Amino acid sequence: MSMKFTCDDKPTLVAYLYGEVDAAVRQAIDDHLAKCAACADELTSLGDVRSKIGLWAPPDVELDFQIVRKSQLPASNVLRPVRWWNAVPVWAQAAAAILVVAAGLSIANLQIKSGPDGFVVTTGWIQGPALSAPADRVAVDREVEGWKTALVSLEQQLRNEIRASHEAGATRAAAPGVVDEATIRRVQQLIADAEQRHERQLAARFVDFARDMTMQRRADMQNIGRVVGQYDEQLLRQRQILNDQGRVLNNVIRVSSSPQQ
Amino acid sequence: MAATDEELVARSMDGDVDSFNQLVLRWERPIYALAYRVIGRDEDARDVAQETFLRAFRALPGFKGQAKFSSWLYRIALNLCRDWIRRKKRTPLVEMPEGVDVAELAAEQGPVESIEDLVSRQEMSRIVAEGMKLLPDEQRTAIVLKEYHGLTFQEIADLQGCPLSTVKTRLYQGLSVLRRHLESRGMTKFESEKQ
To answer: Taking a C-beta distance cutoff of 8 angstroms, is the pair B132, B33 a contact?
Structure first.
């Protein structure tokens, strides 16, 4: 049985246009187009539209898309060289840090003062007035000398420790090594001395601060009293002037209001 | 010999990102062209194309190979285009990007043409783009998939989720609208022959 194509079967005409029909349908449409000028014209015009559609080109742009996967390895798995400070025991790092801070504070010679200009914070290598007594100066110099010796000794011990860690191998993980008991005791003693010394210095500075505050308060109170007294004097003087002026004014009024002779 | 899409997909599923990037390189231009012709904006088309590959990469473990990889990509891209059109709630705008001269493009690709022919080609391209803008989304998408990407009616029906006959009807209606538009601009051979 042969297939019949009709003019209103547009979907089949489109399928014929794109060549997606089987042989039987193709034959039926070919037969129809030979007899139907309207369908033949429509097919020609649709084909022409198709040729024009091909002219529409998208812009020629650079795309270069690429999938980049982030590394999912945890950071701890990444190999990296061992730094020298990773090989120094934690206690030694802490002791060194405390000593550096203590030495810094001592060298900085921190001074806090209050005076007529307000609070004054000074640092420097200038010896403060609180240590003006020769006996105090000698005692402090002696103490500083002792600290210097202790610092040099500790530095030497730390260097030895670092060198020993280096020699043990740079790739090993940082871990507490075998520590000389005497060194630990010495460092503990140094830390305790440093803390005690700082407490003493802080206490002395707080006493000085409190004393300065008291003196300043007294001076301020005296100044206030003097200023208030000056104001009282001025007020009294102005009041006397006003009284005098009032008396003069009364006399003038009295004279002008008396009957003319 | 270049690996097939299926081979590259299989390697990508085994974690080979380079294989997936080969697929990207192979399909980025068709996907961009599809997005550009459907939504008509260069920047947005780039975004859609990029997002298409990102989604494909993420969804790759779920790709069972029941469809061709290209059809799968087209589906993702078309869904993104549909989302874009819905989000913007506006008719796709067909624009001629700056710096892109269709006449130059044609001159590079084809035999030497006269200046008149090049200008005429550029003008015709613009008129076709205008006509495509007039079409409803479904008709334009069907024409784009058929004319520029060579998909079969069945593949388009699968992508658009509609019967085969609907695809043919959409194509017929779309082509008819375009024909009228081209005729109104004096562009069709059919019309010129009648005059």
So the answer is: no
